Recover the amino acids of this structure.
C-alpha cells in the first residue's frame, strides 16, 4: 500500500486526499489551520460555460471540473456525507441590454454540445428575471443556465475530510516542513514528529512558497485577498434561488435558511492580513445594492476573508515538481478554485497511482510558476 502525505486541507488538498483513500492508499492529511484559507471563505459558482476567456486550457479544466461534481457528490453520499454544500439551482447572467446576451447565448449553445449538464438555456425578460430572484433591480434581462450550481466551500471541505477519516486517513493539525534526502522528498516534519511517505503532495495555496523555499524553489504566486458578506433574509425562501452573475465582477448566491452571500473584493496583497476592512464592506455593499437594492433590509450576519492564489496567466498548475519525482503540487486556482479543485485532486491521485490523467498535463505544468 502506497503512503502519501498531503500538505494543505483546502479544497484541492482535501479532494486529493479523498481520491487517494478511495483507491486504497494510506493518507496523512496535514493542515496548519491558518486564517484566510480560500476554501473556508469561499462560496462558489459552478458555471464556467459562458466565460469569454480565451485560454482554452483553463476552459477545458473548468468544464471538466464542473462535469465531475455529479460523480463526486455521489461518492460522498455513498460514504454517508449529507451536508455537502452543493446544489444545482441554475444561474442568471445579467445585463441591462438584451442584445448583449445574444452573443453569450450563442456561446452557451455551442458549448452545450460538449457539456450537456448545462441543461436548459434561455434569455429571460425583465419580469422573468426579477421573478427568479426577487431582490434584483428591475432593469435587467438575463441569460438562464439551468445546470449551474452553488457550492459552500466550507461545507464541501468538511465533507471531504470526514469521508477521508471514515476510510482510514490520518488528519494532523500543524505546520509541515519537507524532509529532503540527497535526491528527493522523503516526507515531512510536523509538531516535532517526522513522517515518511512514498509521495508528498503540497496543496497549501498562497503559503506554498514558504514550504518550498528550503528546496531552493521560488514560486511566482500572487495572493489576492477576497472579502465576502453573508446576509440574512426572513422574507424570501432562498433554498432554490439561482446564482446571480452581474455585468461586473461581483456575485450573489443563496443558501438554505435565508442566507445570501455577496462579494467579493479583489485585493492583491502580500501581508496575509485576514481582517475585514471598512473599505471592503463599503465596496461590496455598494456594488451589491446597485444590482439588488431590495437586499438593503437584510441583516449582516457574517464576514469572511480568504486569500486566493493566482498565477501570472490565471491558469492553475498541477503535477510533479522538476528534480523531485516524489513531490507533486497544485496551485494557482484563483477564483475558480471550487470549480476546478476537486477535479485537480482526482488528476493528482491518478498521477500518483500511475494512471493517465484526463487532460494533457503539459498545459498545466508546474514549471510555469517556478522562478529562475
Amino acid at each position: 500500500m502506497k503512503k502519501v502525505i498531503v500538505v494543505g486541507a483546502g479544497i484541492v488538498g482535501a479532494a486529493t486526499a479523498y481520491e487517494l483513500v478511495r483507491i486504497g492508499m494510506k493518507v496523512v492529511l496535514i493542515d496548519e489551520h491558518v486564517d484566510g484559507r480560500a476554501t473556508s471563505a469561499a462560496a462558489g459558482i459552478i458555471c464556467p460555460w459562458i466565460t469569454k476567456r480565451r485560454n482554452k486550457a483553463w476552459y477545458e479544466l473548468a468544464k471538466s471540473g464542473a462535469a465531475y461534481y455529479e460523480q463526486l457528490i455521489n461518492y460522498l453520499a455513498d460514504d454517508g456525507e449529507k451536508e455537502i454544500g452543493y446544489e444545482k439551482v441554475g444561474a442568471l447572467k445579467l445585463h441591462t441590454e438584451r442584445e448583449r446576451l445574444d452573443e453569450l447565448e450563442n456561446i452557451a449553445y455551442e458549448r452545450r454540445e460538449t457539456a450537456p449538464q448545462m441543461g436548459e438555456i434561455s434569455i429571460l425578460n425583465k419580469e422573468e428575471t426579477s421573478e427568479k430572484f426577487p431582490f434584483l433591480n428591475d432593469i435587467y434581462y438575463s441569460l438562464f443556465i439551468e445546470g449551474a450550481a452553488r457550492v459552500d466551500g466550507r461545507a464541501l471541505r468538511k465533507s471531504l475530510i470526514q469521508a477521508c477519516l471514515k476510510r482510514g486517513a490520518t488528519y494532523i493539525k500543524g505546520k509541515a516542513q519537507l524532509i529532503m534526502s540527497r535526491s528527493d522528498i522523503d516526507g515531512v516534519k510536523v509538531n516535532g514528529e517526522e513522517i515518511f511517505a512514498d509521495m508528498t503532495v503540497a496543496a497549501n495555496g498562497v503559503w506554498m512558497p514558504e514550504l518550498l523555499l528550503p528546496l531552493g524553489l521560488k514560486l511566482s504566486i500572487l495572493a489576492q485577498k477576497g472579502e465576502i458578506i453573508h446576509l440574512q433574509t426572513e422574507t424570501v425562501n432562498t433554498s432554490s434561488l439561482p446564482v446571480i452573475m452581474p455585468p461586473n465582477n461581483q456575485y450573489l448566491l443563496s443558501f438554505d435558511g435565508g442566507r445570501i452571500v455577496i462579494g467579493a473584493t479583489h485585493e492583491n496583497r502580500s501581508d496575509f492580513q485576514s481582517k475585514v476592512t471598512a473599505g471592503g464592506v463599503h465596496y461590496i455593499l455598494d456594488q451589491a445594492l446597485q444590482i439588488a437594492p431590495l437586499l438593503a433590509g437584510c441583516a449582516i450576519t457574517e464576514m469572511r476573508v480568504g486569500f486566493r492564489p493566482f498565477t501570472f496567466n490565471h491558469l492553475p498548475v498541477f503535477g510533479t515538481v522538476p528534480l523531485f519525482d516524489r513531490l507533486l503540487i497544485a496551485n494557482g486556482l484563483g477564483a475558480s478554485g471550487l470549480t476546478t479543485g476537486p477535479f485537480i485532486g482526482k488528476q493528482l491521485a491518478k498521477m500518483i497511482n500511475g494512471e493517465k490523467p484526463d487532460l494533457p498535463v503539459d498545459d498545466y505544468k508546474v514549471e510555469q510558476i517556478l522562478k529562475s
